[in-house]
Amino acid sequence: MDDLVVILASVTVVSLISFVGAIFVGLKEDLLRRIVMALVGFASGTLLGGAFFDLLPEAVDLISPPVTIFYFVILGIMVFFSIEKFLHWRHCHEEECEVHAFAYVSLIGDAVHNFIDGMIIAATFVVGFELGFVTTLAVIFHEIPQEIGDFGVLIYGGFTKVKALTYNFVTALTAILGAIVTYYVVYLRNNYALLVPFAAGGFIYIAATDLMPELHKKSHAGESIVQFLSIVLGLALMAALTSLLHA
Fold it and tell me: Total structural domains in the chain?
């Protein structure tokens, strides 16, 4: 039960990230865009670092034969692909991106994504506190640019600022549901280990197919350097945290 308390506290903090859009309401458009793109690069680095420096090494210790790990990494990638494909959902980090007419569909997709975030956090905390902590940080760092983008989509789609923040928060609460389901269904059946490489596949998919393509939309030399350094910073942070927590 102590595990459940820690898990619920972590996913609650992640859910509160949905209010981050309010901080940027008063910023000028150009400054907001530069901040968001730097955050997207940083989030890409933390997700890749979380997958390769923490989740996959942990999976090697937990799962045998090792080839099973790759099957579940691929499964994670395909599940995330299916979610985006069949819900016609994508993250939007630019105000001019074309999702505005489908604001409610975007909310549904965001709710499903947050549900899976909750599953990932719960599964990794069950394996170990250090793994869960690092995973929670990776999710938070990628939630910040996502929630800023989602807020922009809802505003553009006709939502008021208060309504956009409220709906964003409601969809974020599905992370708590995902965590509870994972704890009681997966943990109590003692077959949680396979969710670790599944989570790694999800992290890799989000970073490589959702976040990084957004960075390619900005090809100016200065912005490209900032993006690259942001990714490296995210990777370095996750490597340092992993080394520190496992020392």
Answer: 1
Calpha distance 168→161 (Å, rounded): 11
> What are the start-end ranges of the H helices in the chain?
2-16, 29-49, 56-62, 67-87, 103-127, 129-156, 161-172, 174-181, 195-205, 212-215, 221-246
Identify residue 133 by its one-letter amino acid code.
Answer: F
Q: What is the pTM of this model?
A: 0.71
Q: Is residue 166 part of a domain?
A: yes
Compute the distance between CA of residue 5 and CA of residue 154 in angstroms, rounded to an integer: 32
What secondary structure letter does DSSP report for 66? T
**What would the mean pLDDT of 145-171 be, rounded to a whole number?**
77
Which domain range does residue 33 map to?
2-10+28-246
Which residues, 6 or more positions from 18, have their beta carbon under 8 angstroms from its beta carbon? 143, 147, 150, 165, 168, 169, 171, 172
